[in-house]
Amino acid sequence: MRAKRGVRAGLGLSLALMLTLTASSASSATRGTSTGAPPPTEPSPTTDAPPTPTIARAWPVGSRPLVLRAWEPPPTPYARGHRGVDLAAAPGAPVRAVAAGRVHFAGRVAGRGVVSVELSSTGTPPLRTTYEPVTVTVEKGTEVTAGEVVGTVETGSGHCPTTCVHWGLLRGDTYLDPLTLLPAWLLHRGPSRLLPVTGVPLPT
């Protein structure tokens, strides 16, 4: 009888100890969930990004160039896509800064002339526009105004079937659609039209 009572007492003590440890583990897990850092999540570059200000006052080339290829954002940072827009342009045509800023880079990358302009008063990190392929006519650190020439259209890059300028826009390492810099009056402006003139005598 004494042996049976000893066995029962030992089983009861073991059961009580197991229940105590289980409750303690559950309590620790709950505290860890409520006070610990949440599991890491994928960043959302588009959700928190401020809207692009419509500060452009000129097209990079011409007055309303043909868009040969539009912006095609890649689904992931390293996937295929088109990180800018291609604008038709004549060889040697002037390439202009679309807004005021400071030349962030001016030189050659992979055999192409590239100009990058950091746009003024566009937040942190600031917006940067890029233009390629160009024959560079400015230096790094130069302050430029909207419409100021930063280079001329370079040929032979092979980026487009015809001569073009690839225009890009970035905030930090995130590519954006450069056409969003253009206000509606500049983006949709049609060609100039001559209006009829009446009441003016013809020259004799």
Q: How many DSSP-defined strands?
A: 11
Q: What gyration radius follows from the Cα positions, in whole Å?
A: 32 Å
Shape field: globular
Give me the number of helical elements: 2
Write the SSE topology:
Layout: H1 2-35, E1 67-69, E2 85-88, E3 94-96, E4 101-109, E5 112-119, E6 127-132, E7 134-136, E8 143-144, E9 149-153, E10 164-171, E11 174-176, H2 184-187
Antiparallel strand pairs: 1-2, 2-10, 3-9, 4-5, 4-8, 5-6, 6-10, 7-9, 10-11
Plain-language structure description:
This protein is an alpha+beta fold. The protein is built from two helices and eleven strands. Strands 1, 2, 4, 5, 6, 8, 10 and 11 form an eight-stranded antiparallel β-sheet that branches. A three-stranded antiparallel β-sheet has the order 3-9-7, with no helix packed on it.
